[in-house]
Amino acid sequence: MPTFTAPDGTVLAYHVRGEGDPLLVLPGGPMWASTYLGDLGGLDAHRRLILLDLRGTGDSEVPADPTSYRCDRLVDDVEALRVHLGLERMDLLAHSAGGSLAMLYTARYPDRVARLALITAIPWALGLPVPADDRLAAARLREDEPWFAEAFPVFEAWLAGQADFDPVIVPFFWGRWDDAARDLNARADELCNDEAADVYGSEGAYDPPATRAALSTVTAPVLVLAGELDGGPRPGLARHAADVFPQAEFAVQPGAGHYPWLDDPEWFAGRTAAFFTRSAVSVPSAE
Fold first, then answer.
1. CA-CA distance, 191 to 204, in Å (whole number)?
2. Rounded to an integer, what distance in angstroms lies between the CA atom of residue 99 and that of residue 7?
3. Which pLDDT does position 286 carry in this prediction?
4. Buried-exposed string 229-262: b where 16+ CB fall within 10 A, e elsewhere
5. Which pLDDT tens digit goes with each residue over 127-177?
6. Scanning 46, 168, 229, 272, which has the fewest C-beta atoms within 10 Å of its C-beta?
């Protein structure tokens, strides 16, 4: 297992899958160990995936300073990994909450990012939280599912703050509630550093006006990929995030929830690999 040392002395780990040109991958959660990403639906057949375990997760050390879990402070870790890998510029992919980290990194180091893919990324860094109404609208798309009648009232109460989280609502986060989804969901507690997750988006982590201004001048091609059935973000909200970038393309994966590489691995890997293969993108395009 390869490691490198962050600027504050914390030893961080990363995992390598596949062959070819490197693609640095930032996990979501927030603060989930990168193992949940697997091979990203076979994307490792196209690129050498460099899966970072953020500090305090997976095989990376717990830092001495717990405030260093804050998203904006994690930017230094990403830059340290780039330097460690000897990359002048790098391709970057981020999932879910990791999308905000990728956006903050790109805003601070625009010349270091060759291409950026934001996969079902919640755009907190842009000041775009997920409204409860969006989650409910996406949930209603599942009304033909056998578990919907029991789960929807609980989901509605949870979003309204009238009920605690109940496992019965978990299928709403997946495009297909199948064995692969159930297996990953069963490992959620062991994957997540809850203390770090609480700090990730804490006060001071984001400065949306400054981030928007910085990203509006980024020349790197950007892919913003949403899941058709995902409630956070719904495709409309993801499209608003794409509009921030001058060279962005927007794609919606049919039938996908928040983990699109599990819902349709072939579609996801093919679409994502095609983006990283191209040298330029149209502005804007939609699927």
1. 25
2. 22
3. 36
4. bbbbbbbebbbebbebbebbbbbbbeebbbbbbb
5. 999 999 999 999 999 999 999 999 999 999 999 999 999 999 999 999 999
6. 168
Structure tokens at 262: 């599990």
With vertex at residue 195, the alpha carbon angle to CA 194 and CA 200, rounded to the nearest 5 degrees, is 90
> Which amino acid, residue 274?
A
In eight-state DSSP terms, residue 32 is B
pLDDT of amino acid 123: 97
pLDDT at 279: 45
List of the chain residues with pLDDT < 50: 279-287
Read off the tokens for 149.
């009648």
Rounded to whole angstroms, the Cα distance separating 108 from 76 reads 10
Residue 278's pLDDT is 81
Place of tokens 């609480």: 198
Q: What is the pTM of this model?
A: 0.95
Q: Edge to edge, what strands does the sheet with 90-95 contain?
A: 3-5, 11-17, 48-52, 22-26, 90-95, 113-119, 222-227, 248-253
